[in-house]
Amino acid sequence: MIELDGQAGGGQLLRTALALSLCTGEAFAMTGIRARRERPGLLRQHLTAVDAARAVGKATVEGASTGSTELRFTPEGIHAGEHRWTIGTAGSTTLVLQTVLPALWMHGVAAHLTIEGGTHNPQAPTADFIDEAFLPLMERMGIDGDFSMGGHGFYPAGGGRITFDLRPSAKPSALHLPHRGEVVERHARAILSAIPLGIGQRELEVARRRLGLGEAEVSVRQVKSPIGPGNALSIRFRAEHSTAVFTGFGIKRVTAEHVAEGVSKAASAWLAADVAVDEHLADQLLLPMALAGEGSFSTTLPSAHARSNAALIEKFLPVEFSFDDEGGGRWSIAVSR
Hints:
- This protein has 337 residues and is α/β, with parallel strands linked by helices.
- Helix content is 35%, strand content 30%.
- The chain contains eight helices and 16 strands.
- The chain has helices spanning 11-24, 44-57, 93-106, 127-141, 197-211, 256-273, 279-292, 304-316; strands spanning 2-5, 28-31, 60-62, 71-74, 81-86, 111-117, 144-151, 160-167, 175-177, 183-193, 218-222, 230-239, 243-249, 294-299, 320-327, 330-336.
- The longest helix is centred in the C-terminal third of the chain and has 18 residues, at 256-273.
- The chain is globular and about 55 Å long.
């Protein structure tokens, strides 16, 4: 059984451990889960990920309770087919998906996954990010499936839904992204759930001015039958070899202009760095590239989160990560056996 210390990160370390345990069949015990957070231990959204992994891996689990800082997980196999999980809050549906999808992919099985909860959560990849930035790269690595969003779920109401139909797929293959190539598409979209239209229009005006977007490169999406109020500004740059999605969220007592300035600044920084992968997508690529046994990409300064995640992956798989500073704000991350 692999012994892990969860103090170095948040829920992502636990989700990575669950995903790799399912992929390898290796049991693990983690202590200090989210120990340095204001609310340490497992929360409802983490427990949904544990329950999902338990169902997919036919696993025996100890310590899966609210507030627990210790967990033992022993997988016994892979249960494909149809699964449905409800978080019950605005906890991230996409993070639950990323917990179980790698193992189902690795084992070459078919599955239909439905997850209800938050689709647009400030602390997690949005459904748009998964659909537009992450999954296209996974398809290049070999996954075969269809992703859809059946409803938006914003904090705190949740109520959104995502589905993924996985077809039997080839095991992950190596992917190398040294350059992004030319930017071929730009778009900014304001998403409004029970929020006045003017909020989105003000956000888009800032994005147009800061990023030089044309009138046809912006749009508003008003959520039909909203569960609760919510607002996000999503800016997408699609290049020849990769896509970057940057998202900002409307917050009480924060102006629409301030939200848009923050997202536009992040997008501008990625453009100026001339790298293939932004900081958040970099975090998401480590695990699938490690499963392939080989991969690399250019990115901006790696987060501490990425480094701790890489260290955990190395405990499960016979791979090694390298983080190389190429100067001028450009970094290269690579994984090899």
